[in-house]
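re: that chain from earlier
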Amino acid sequence: MATRQTPAQMNEELQKFRDEISCIVVLEQAGYRFDRSESSARHRRFRRVKGDSIIVTHGGKGWWDPHNSASITKGSVIDLVRFLNPGMTLGGARVELRKMLGLTPSGAEYIAEPKTRKPARDPRYMWNNRHAPRRGSAAWTYLTGTRALPEWILDMAVEQGLLREGMKGTAWFAHSDNAGQLTGMEMRGPEYRGFSSGGGGKRLLRLRTGEKEARPVRLVIGESAIDVLSYVTLDPFSFEPSLYVSTGGGMSPEALEEFRALLGTVEPGGRVMIVVDNDAQGDRYEAIYAPMALQAGLTPLRYSPKAEDSDWNTVLQNRARQGVAA
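^ sequence. v structure.
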């Protein structure tokens, strides 16, 4: 039968723990290892994982936690055991410390796991590491202010997973293939315009209106994401089940084949709205898309702004300046 210690014996045992057990031993037993790269002669850092470390001081007799703001963040080896085991009583700490009497530090060092970061130009990596713009953010302000896009159309793009915010207020618009895989982003901002695909080539941005499950009766194709969103804003027939796509400029052969396949998803006898700029490039795009629509049994219709060399976002901006409702 265990004998009960007197208060004097208890204090003597606690002092024995402080004198004979190094904080390093306690940390090693808990899975921490010496991080040489972030240690000095006076302060030795022991790390378990990134963001979880303890500083050992006074030659192993003391410690402190650089991450925790709670009241007990430093002390002796006894405090350390209780800190590492929240809720542990002093009696429980004594039981644990008795097991460590006579142990010495192993000297094992912390080795950081190699970073497995994907190449920065991988569009999926870039996309997944960015957040959607929100009211008041730089990209949101650029799109609603400079570009005059209403908030409801940005909400729709965010809801359909088509919009992210990049650096310096740049808006990123997602392009995907017919299988739904992200292939790249149109990038538009106050100081930048481009496309990032990581070498995979352009495909199409796709935004749907009307009933989600309904087969589209219209396919609306434009030259850029901002022009397409502008046209949706101005379109009196956007309530119809429609698929709006942006090519992000000229289409690659792979994108053209995907567009041809996409025409087959439109309701038989439906329309293909070619909403391109009023310029020579718009004429060339019409000459490509209209025959493809006819081959698919659909009716091609071209819609361009009345003013020469104008695009649909310019129309939207002019209406916003004049206070004319879309």
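The chain is about 35% helix and 20% strand.
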